[in-house]
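User: Can you recover a sequence for this backbone? Please restate the input before giving your answer.

Assistant: Of course. Working from this structure:
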């Protein structure tokens, strides 16, 4: 249902938005300095479900390491994931890498200039393709990211969840309708900025909005009702045990996860449902016998579709078979490990290992007795 399908025919939606952008929009973001297709593409992928302040340092580091699409395409998966580590939604990084390789092989290293071709690349849908072309090439392409959906649903009073096909189709029509024929680049940035800084999800600043005069939600004091959210069930909780396995040289055992799925392609710790199963699997899969030294407090991590409770178990590891670099598991010193693409909870645990007063101090050399080691463990736990 649409409460305000066209609004006042004399209302200049794009004109008012552009005027606001000229005075209040963001003009100094790193990807705005040189609006090449590659830089815009990289920023758009990073900005998906991630705030600008979080993205900026990642964008700058990523660009310094991979200044163009050929550099990105030639990089190893580990290098790409390491630079993305901590930004979350890791499928974005995998798709970015795959798309770069396709751009080099199929398009001679140049991002396609057509919406249809661009939208077929991994990780690039209709809205992202439109944003890349509008901002980098000034093509007249509409966009419909989360910020734009919020602006349009409120302005037009569009009922229903924006993810519903009928609602989304209506929003695309409005997006096309409002996109001007000039200053496409600025308009595209403007409507995203409005949603990010003024027409926010909570506590929108309607008094600062150039569209408030004709906005249905503002006029009816109902901004909290738009856009409507999808009813969600309570997130289930899953539990896992992660083994923090160190050998006599204080190296850490890390396991590379499969390329797809949760934390796909990242390095993690040996993991299973419970401690005993995790240790058995570690010996069977990676040839390492584990002796428990202690357990750390449960670490909580939330995904979009479930909560995860991680029980970290500190172990002394004794290889019974060789574990070689380049396989699914390898030994790393803590400095090397910190430079890898790591799952966020694993990065936290490694950081804890690096603290001089943590339980990490209990991984003593095997020449000490088990009694001394456990005694030290108890003392360290009291200090932590």
């Amino acid at each position: 249902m649409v409460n305000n399908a066209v609004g006042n025919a004399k209302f200049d939606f794009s004109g008012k938005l552009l005027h606001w952008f000229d005075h209040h929009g963001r003009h100094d973001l790193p990807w705005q300095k040189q609006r090449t297709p590659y830089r815009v593409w990289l920023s758009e992928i990073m900005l998906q479900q991630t705030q600008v302040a979080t993205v900026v340092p990642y964008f700058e580091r990523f660009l310094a390491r991979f200044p163009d699409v050929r550099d990105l395409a030639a990089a190893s998966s580990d290098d790409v994931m390491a630079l993305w580590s901590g930004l979350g939604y890791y499928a974005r990084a995998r798709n970015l890498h795959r798309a770069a390789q396709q751009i080099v092989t199929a398009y001679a290293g140049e991002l396609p200039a057509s919406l249809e071709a661009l939208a077929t690349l991994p990780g690039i849908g209709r809205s992202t393709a439109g944003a890349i072309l509008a901002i980098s090439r000034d093509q007249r392409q509409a966009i419909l990211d989360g910020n734009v959906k919020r602006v349009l649903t409120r302005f037009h009073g569009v009922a229903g969840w924006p993810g519903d096909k009928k609602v989304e189709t209506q929003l695309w029509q409005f997006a096309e309708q409002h996109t001007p024929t000039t200053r496409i680049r600025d308009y595209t940035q403007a409507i995203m900025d409005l949603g990010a800084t003024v027409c926010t999800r909570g506590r929108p600043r309607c008094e600062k909005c150039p569209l408030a005069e004709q906005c249905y939600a503002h006029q009816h004091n109902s901004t909290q009702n738009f856009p409507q959210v999808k009813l969600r069930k309570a997130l289930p909780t899953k539990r896992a045990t992660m083994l923090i396995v160190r050998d006599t040289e204080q190296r850490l055992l890390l396991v590379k996860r499969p390329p797809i799925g949760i934390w796909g392609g990242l390095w993690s710790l040996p993991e299973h449902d419970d401690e005993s199963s995790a240790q058995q699997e570690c010996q069977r899969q990676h040839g390492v016998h584990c002796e428990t030294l202690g357990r750390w407090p449960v670490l909580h991590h939330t995904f979009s579709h479930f909560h995860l409770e991680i029980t970290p178990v500190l172990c002394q590891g004794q290889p019974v078979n060789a574990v070689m670099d380049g396989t699914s598991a390898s030994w790393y010193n803590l400095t090397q490990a910190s430079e890898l693409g790591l799952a966020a909870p694993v990065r936290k645990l490694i950081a804890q290992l690096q603290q001089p007063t943590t339980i990490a101090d209990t991984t003593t050399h095997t020449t000490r007795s088990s009694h001394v080691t456990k005694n030290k463990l108890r003392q360290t736990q009291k200090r932590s």
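That completes the design. The longest strand covers residues 307-319.
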